[in-house]
Amino acid sequence: MRIRPPRRWEAVDLRVIWHYRDLLVAFAVRDIKLRYRQTLLGVIWVLIQPLMAAGIFSFVFGRIAKLDSGNIPYFPFAYTGLLAWNLFSSTVLKSAGSLVGNASLVSKVFFPRLLLPFSGAVSTLVDFAIAAAAGCVLLLAYQVTPGFSIVLAPFWLLFLVLFALGIGMFCAALAVRFRDVNHILPVLLQLMLYGSPVAYTLAIIPPGLPMLLYKLNPMATLLHGFRVAIFGEGYVGFPSTIYAITASLLMFVIGMIFFRRMERQFADVI
After folding, report:
1. Mind listing the pLDDT tens digit for each residue in 189-214?
2. Which terminus of the chain has fewer Cβ atoms in its 10 Å neighbourhood, N or C?
């Protein structure tokens, strides 16, 4: 069998992800094991982090700043926002660092490089599932009953993950040549956190031009839509939904094309 590098503008074939699915799962399992190896609490950290963050947000934004969360108790309101945000930010960071973090594999072993950022997304989805199960218990404790709208939650999560993967693949390819990317990215995500409706609702944004500019961030609609799906309170406008979906798909395609275009250089530069 002759192994050759892909042509620079060769079409991206996502069927390779399914063809190498066993290797994809192996990468994801390895990532999860490495993350919690030699830790006292292990996977419990998946629950502690959003619970602590939601507690801090509840105190700072709920008690002190007294931000309105509608008819939803503030703690589950903040926890739900953090649940979706952590899925986004973890997917971006793990995908972006996947090539540099596996430099020895990339430079010595042949396999589809797309498996690395995608495996990061799989491992974060496992963490999300565990934290979401705790979120269900939290909703029961606060006597919050999700409505039929909860069936739309996977829809919002799908485009959130696609948006995150697009950013992650773009940054992963860029980080092979410019290692500064993995230092700058956490700072940008932290700024983006406060520019997204994680700890507050869209109701506090003034209508008109400020709201229009605010919604240029696709995460504003994706997070708001996920929360509306969970609690059944509020609505998401059709234009905002179309914009968020389009932006997510566009970012995913751009990330894949850029990743594919740079793939020939990975083994030599990394």
Report:
1. 999 998 898 988 888 888 887 888 88
2. N
Q: CA-CA distance, 146 to 150, in Å (whole number)?
A: 6
Q: What are the tens digits of pLDDT across the range 106-139? A: 777 777 888 889 998 998 998 899 899 989 999 9
